[in-house]
């Protein structure tokens, strides 16, 4: 090239119209103020070795951390039972059910269950009709209302019975202060507690007396219907004590002079009227 431009700094040949030297970068216009373009020195062998060593260490740590994270995730998944959808489905922690005594019956009630007139009340006659390995435990308390029975239900369930006979309502109706809805709610709550314990609730109708006849009949109808709907056994004490000559009132031959509490004959009649298949059919 006849018109090549020579760089005064390095002597390299450049095109005639070049403003900067292609070799050293010096300006042809102002060579004093345009310093040569510095060249990047090649990396030293020591620097290259250190870089490679650091890379190896990083990869090694990355692999170790990755394995630890996968192990931790597998432990979490096993503990909480992650399903295929990825949602945690922790297994509920439940206590083992209580060991129930197959031949134990607990009777919850008032003075009619307690045996005000005679300790050999209906419970005594029920026990006498069952085999010797059966227990019939009395937890009747004189004057108790259904709210009192509900409050003491844990005492009955602490015995781990297979059956809990509930005889309540007489004292609730006696003074008319307890609404029918409250009595029914208390009976439902007792049955729920018994069932949640794994035992079987056994309901009883209220025996007849001379007061609150209409409310008693409504309550007895509800008890019978509730037992049917829930599949609970029912003992119909009302029909045993009812006066065939004056329905709705107690039979004077089967109750004490107060017209409420069964006498010895009434205790025998109620205890022997209980269907033993309630307890012996392997419910």
Explain what this protein looks like in three dimensions.
This protein has eleven helices and seven strands. The strands form two sheets. A five-stranded parallel sheet has the order 4-3-5-6-7, with helices on both faces. The protein has a two-stranded antiparallel ribbon with strand order 1-2. It is of the alpha/beta class. The chain folds into three domains: 31 residues, no CATH class; 47 residues; 180 residues, 3-Layer(aba) Sandwich (Rossmann fold), CATH 3.40.50.1110. It is rod-shaped. It is 42% helix and 12% strand. α3 packs across α10.
Task: Name some characteristics of this structure.
283 residues, alpha/beta, Rossmann fold, 3 domains, 5-stranded parallel β-sheet, two-stranded antiparallel ribbon, 11 helices, 42% helix, rod-shaped
Topology of helices and strands:
Layout: E1 5-6, E2 13-14, H1 45-80, E3 101-109, H2 111-114, H3 122-129, E4 135-140, H4 146-151, H5 153-157, E5 161-167, H6 170-174, H7 180-196, E6 200-204, H8 213-230, E7 234-235, H9 237-241, H10 264-273, H11 277-280
Parallel strand pairs: 3-4, 3-5, 5-6, 6-7
Antiparallel strand pairs: 1-2
Helix pairs in contact: 3-10
According to CATH, what is the topology of the largest domain? Rossmann fold
CA-atom Rg in angstroms: 47 Å
Strand order of the largest sheet: 4-3-5-6-7
Give the C-level CATH assignment of the largest domain.
Answer: Alpha Beta
Secondary structure: helix percent: 40-55%
> What structural class should be given to the helix and strand makeup?
alpha/beta
Report strand %. Answer: 5-15%
* Low-pLDDT residue spans: 82-86
In total, the number of strands is 7
**Kindly, what is the distance between the CA atoms of the first and last residues, rounded to a whole number of angstroms?**
116 Å
CATH 2nd-level architecture of the largest domain: 3-Layer(aba) Sandwich
What is the domain total for the residues?
A: 3
User: So what's the overall shape?
Assistant: rod-shaped
User: What's the CATH superfamily of the largest domain, by name?
Assistant: SGNH hydrolase
Q: Number of helical segments? A: 11
Q: Whole-number average pLDDT?
A: 82
Largest sheet, in brief, is: 5 strands, parallel
Q: In sequence order, what are the helices and strands, one letter per element?
A: EEHEHHEHHEHHEHEHHH
């Amino acid at each position: 090239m006849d018109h090549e431009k020579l760089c005064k700094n390095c002597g390299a040949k450049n095109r005639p119209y070049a403003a900067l030297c292609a070799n050293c970068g010096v300006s042809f216009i102002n060579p004093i103020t345009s310093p040569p373009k510095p060249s990047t020195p090649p990396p030293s062998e020591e620097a290259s070795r250190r870089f490679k060593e650091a890379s190896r260490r990083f990869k090694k740590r990355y692999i170790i951390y990755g394995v630890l994270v996968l192990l931790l995730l597998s432990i979490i998944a096993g503990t909480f039972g992650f399903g295929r959808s990825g949602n945690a489905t922790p297994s509920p922690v439940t206590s083992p059910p209580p060991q129930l005594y197959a031949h134990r019956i607990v009777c919850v009630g008032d003075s009619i269950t307690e045996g005000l007139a005679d300790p050999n009340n209906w419970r005594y006659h029920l026990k006498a009709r069952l085999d010797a390995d059966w227990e019939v435990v009395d937890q009747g308390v004189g004057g108790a209302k259904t709210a009192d029975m509900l409050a003491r239900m844990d005492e009955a369930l602490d015995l781990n019975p297979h059956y809990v006979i509930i005889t309540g309502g007489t004292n609730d109706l006696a003074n008319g202060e307890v609404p029918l809805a409250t009595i029914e709610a208390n009976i439902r709550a007792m049955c729920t507690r018994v069932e949640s314990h794994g035992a079987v609730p056994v309901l009883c109708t209220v025996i007849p007396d001379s007061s609150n006849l209409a409310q008693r009949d409504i309550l007895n109808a509800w008890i019978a219907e509730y037992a049917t709907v829930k599949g609970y056994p029912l003992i119909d004490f009302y029909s045993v004590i009812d006066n065939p000559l004056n329905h709705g009132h107690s039979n004077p031959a089967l109750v004490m002079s107060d017209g409420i509490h069964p006498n010895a004959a009434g205790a025998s009649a109620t205890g022997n009227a209980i269907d033993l298949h309630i307890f012996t059919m392997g419910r």
